Amino acid sequence: MKKTWLILAAIALGASPTAQAKGDYEAGKAKSTACAACHGADGVSTVASFPKLAGQHRDYLYQVLKDYRSGKRKNPIMAGQVQNLSDMDMRDLAMYFSKQKGLTLKY
Amino acid sequence: MKLTTMTLCASALLLLAVPAQAAGDPRAGRLKTSMCAGCHGIAGWRTAYPSVYSVPKLGGQHADYIVAALKAYKSGERSHPSMTAIAGSLSERDMDDLAAYYASSYSGAAN
What is the pTM of this model? Predict the structure, then answer.
């Protein structure tokens, strides 16, 4: 039994570096419920004043969340939302929304 | 009578609601993208300063949000060196047109 845990832990440790750097889709999906109220369940907001997130670049979304948390970018709603997000949460959320179908590159 | 009043009220509300939306022209906007396309229109393009990350996609974004972002850059409420300079040179008409272009499915004539 103890051995099983050790093996599982080893697998988890081995698998984590990529997931940590880029974020985890499923974890992001689970954490995205708070975002859905304004940005839509899949990041396609139906209210014109709230930006669509679906399909946006992952690293841009991550940057924006960090900027809200540091106060560099100011928005009363977002400031409250990101207050308790960890770096990992932000990476996970950015991963999830970047994989949704929505925004496109337009020349 | 009641119905007429209600219809009139509803019509008045509708009339009020229309100009509240960003009333830009996608075709006019397409002709104003020269300052945007060099960064937002190139796949894989990243910002160079002050920090490095992918330039956001604009295709399909809400027009109202794009206008709000441009106004925030112009006023200084939102800051990014390039965007502050570019938004500062845009009129409200330009912002409406650009936002309408990026929000729409209109892609313009092939170059």
Answer: 0.81
